[in-house]
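Field log, afternoon session.

UNIT: design team B
ACTIVITY: writing a sequence onto a fixed backbone
BACKBONE:
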């Protein structure tokens, strides 16, 4: 069993309510985590635990989803979006669902933008730097259900609840229930360590476009979801709620470098990048969700 990853726990309260110097101190703590492990646990992040409990209680939704990215994932998902939200059940189909999702989405959106602001502050890019490339941003709020499954099915070669991957946007907020099974590669060596559930926290991780934009200063880290550490042969179901923050589709992601420093990546268009990575990750039949 891998030991737990050493991921810092940072209180976000001083960023939300503190004076300028306190905000900057929190931004520095986040950047310290993002530029090493690439992950941080935030606590006191402005979304009450009752709201999170409500969200997890709601997770009995229309199933969907079949990842096909070089392995087999055992999961199903629902996607909630700001624009083109085609798969959201109507009020008749599921009373109150859209309203609850929209309000949680707004809270995640605010938190995601604040996390990006921390990166901008810590890197001295100008506090509003990311506002310029997130004007029309359409993050995905995803409800994931990993069904109960036999351990021997999940532990076959190439199978997982979600196979090793990096996220491909700017950053991700990740809420998980208490089951466990998420592992991350904190030293970027292929050595996965558990990112244990911690009630009252949200995990934040850097994704590929922020790694590219910062020329590897911020780290996008491989992660996967495997069997939780239980002794049973039938594994319990698991729920998680990631919120993926993406830049505007027309944003050009060109690595920012200091004088004399070489760019490690080509410039990419964020919209094309998202389309490409989405297509790579999903069976063609699910393309309609995007
Ligand atoms: O369910 C989890 O904890 C991780 C989900 C994830 O990594 C993803 O959807 O990209
Ligand atoms: Fe992920």
């Amino acid at each position: 069993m891998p030991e737990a990853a050493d991921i810092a726990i940072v209180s976000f309260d001083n960023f939300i309510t503190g004076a300028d110097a306190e905000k900057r101190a929190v931004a520095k703590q986040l950047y310290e985590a993002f530029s090493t492990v690439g992950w941080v646990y935030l606590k006191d992040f402005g979304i009450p635990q009752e709201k999170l409990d409500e969200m997890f209680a709601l997770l009995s939704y229309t199933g969907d989803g079949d990842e096909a990215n070089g392995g087999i994932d055992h999961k199903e998902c629902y996607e909630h979006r700001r624009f083109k939200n085609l798969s959201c059940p109507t009020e008749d189909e599921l009373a109150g669902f859209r309203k609850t999702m929209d309000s949680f989405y707004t809270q995640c959106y605010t938190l995601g933008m604040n996390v990006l602001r921390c990166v901008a502050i810590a890197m001295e890019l100008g506090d509003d730097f990311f506002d310029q490339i997130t004007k029309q941003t359409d993050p995905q709020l995803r409800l994931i259900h990993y069904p109960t499954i036999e351990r021997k099915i999940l532990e076959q070669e190439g199978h997982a609840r979600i196979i090793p991957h990096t996220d491909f946007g700017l950053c991700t907020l990740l809420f998980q229930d208490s089951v466990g099974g998420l592992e991350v590669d904190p030293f970027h060596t292929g050595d996965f360590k558990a990112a244990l559930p911690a009630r009252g926290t949200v995990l934040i991780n850097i994704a590929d476009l922020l790694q590219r934009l910062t020329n590897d200063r911020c780290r996008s880290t491989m992660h996967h979801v495997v069997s939780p550490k239980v002794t049973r042969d039938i594994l319990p179901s698991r729920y998680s709620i990631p919120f993926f923050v993406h830049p505007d589709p027309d944003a050009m992601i060109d690595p920012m470098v200091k004088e004399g420093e070489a760019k490690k990546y080509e410039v990419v268009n964020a919209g094309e990048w998202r389309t490409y990575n989405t297509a790579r990750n999903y069976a063609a039949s699910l393309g309609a969700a995007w």
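LOG NOTE: Residues 62-66, 283-290 have pLDDT under 50 and may be disordered.
NEXT ACTIVITY: expression trials, pending approval
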